[in-house]
Amino acid sequence: MNRISRKHLESQVATINRMLGAPSESYALVGDRYKANIGNYHIGANTPGDRYGTRFCLQQTINEGGGVHVVSGTEVCGAQAFADVLSAMISGIQAAQEAIRQTVAA
Questions:
Q1: What is the rounded CA–CA span in Å between residue 15 and residue 86?
Q2: Would you say 19 and 94 are in contact if contact means Cβ atoms under 8 Å apart?
Q3: Tens digits of per-residue pLDDT, 66-94?
Q4: pLDDT tens-digit profile of 44-69?
Q5: Which positions ≥6 away from 76 have C-beta within 8 Å?
Q6: Beta-bridge partners for 69
Q7: Which of 3, 46, 87, 91 has the fewest CB atoms within 10 Å, i.e. the most exposed one?
Q8: CA pair distance 14, 100, nearest whole angstrom
Q9: Is the pLDDT at 1 greater than 80, yes or no?
């Protein structure tokens, strides 16, 4: 089993943003202030200092102040488990998009 890096996880999240047409960056500089990009998906991480290590979750920005909704439902323990969740989400998005294409073509 290959080690899952933060870069790999970020690549998976970038794929989700691209597939859903969501902003690729969490914040944008507007004038002299930063504004959250509503709809952006990004990684949330928490390292509580216990033996289980960093816990990850997928978050979506829901307002201009930077408030988020945890899309993955809960924090997932470990990078490998989180990568598996992201892979499943990408597969689900692909299946839904294909079903829509087939419906429109019919």
A1: 10
A2: yes
A3: 999 999 877 777 899 999 999 999 999 99
A4: 998 877 777 788 999 999 998 899 99
A5: 55, 56, 57, 82, 85
A6: 60
A7: 3
A8: 22
A9: no
User: Which of 55, 59, 47, 60 minimizes the C-alpha distance to 80?
Assistant: 55
| One-letter identity of residue 10 | E
User: What was the pLDDT predicted at 48?
Assistant: 78
Q: Of how many residues is the chain composed?
A: 106
Q: In angstroms, what is the C-alpha Rg of the chain? A: 16
- For residues 86 and 90, what is the distance between their CA atoms, to the nearest angstrom? 6
State the DSSP code for 4.
P
Give the list of residues 6+ apart from residue 94 with CB closer than 8 angstroms, or none.
19
DSSP state of 54: -
Tell me the two tokens of residue 31.
């004038």
